[in-house]
Design goal:
Oligomer: single chain
Order of helices and strands: EEEHEEEEEHEEEEHEEEE
Strand order of the largest sheet: 6-5-8-3-2-1-4-7
Number of domains: 2
Structural class: mainly beta
Helix content: under 10%
Radius of gyration: 18 Å
Shape: globular
């Protein structure tokens, strides 16, 4: 299996800047830890962000989570669940530092990442959402090479669809990433109801070309049997 070096950097509430680095195996979720090689004079041992900064808060991303190839998604995990979806970037497009709502860290918290390099991986679409009750979730799917039909995205942990996972919750912020937005209707991930009608959605961003930013446009209250889909047109 191929591997990629994934990097990032965060600022803590204490003013500390923490470099992050991992050698990730493509197609397998990995942990992004503190970098053990932050300077010629030495550094800190590679460890989970929650262990390193227990009780402190992440306040800024100084460098987005990026790799030479494709980062599919990143999230902060707590007790096996998605605590916070994390924005990703491109290695050749380092964005400005981004302030975020502070994330108070606990021992055991970890940053989880997925990278991809194979052709099928590069077709993957990743939809990140934040709901009105604070629930964060990530849904993914890998459209085929056809020019019609739809692909429904499923939760990365439970394998459930959008409606099964978030029934009754309202999506208040979301973003989607992928490399083939031009192949999709509206260039977007669509929130499709049980009659097949789009009720919301958000554009698919190729982070190698432009900044990935969450937005509140196109959110909706999710009902049972709804799907997050990309509809192929090319």
């Amino acid at each position: 299996m191929s591997t990629q070096i994934v990097t990032g950097a965060v600022m803590l509430s204490t003013g500390e800047l923490v470099s992050l680095q991992a050698t990730a195996t493509d197609g397998t979720e990995s942990e992004l830890q503190t970098s053990g090689t932050v300077g010629a004079g030495g550094g800190i041992a590679a460890t989970s962000i929650g262990t390193y900064a227990n009780g402190k808060a992440i306040t800024h991303f100084i460098q987005p989570i990026a790799a030479a190839g494709q980062v599919q998604y990143c999230y902060l995990s707590r007790r096996g669940e998605i605590l916070r979806c994390i924005e990703i970037g491109g290695s050749e497009q380092m964005n400005s530092p981004v302030a975020i709502p502070p994330i108070q860290l606990q021992a055991g918290d970890s940053l989880r990442i997925l990278t991809g390099a194979a052709t099928v991986d590069l077709r993957q679409v990743n939809y990140n959402v934040v709901c009105n009750d604070g629930t964060n979730a990530i849904f993914t799917g890998q459209p085929g090479t056809g020019t019609s039909g739809g692909t429904s995205l499923t939760h990365i942990l439970s394998g459930q669809g959008l409606g099964e996972s978030l029934t009754g919750r309202s999506i208040v912020s979301h973003f989607a990433t992928g490399t083939e937005g031009a192949r999709y209707a509206s260039g977007s991930v669509l929130l499709v109801n049980d009659r097949g009608l789009p009720m919301g959605g958000t554009i698919v961003t190729n982070v190698s070309n432009q900044t990935c930013k969450p937005n509140s446009v196109g959110g909706a209250k999710v009902m049972l049997n709804w799907q997050a889909q990309v509809v192929l047109i090319a």
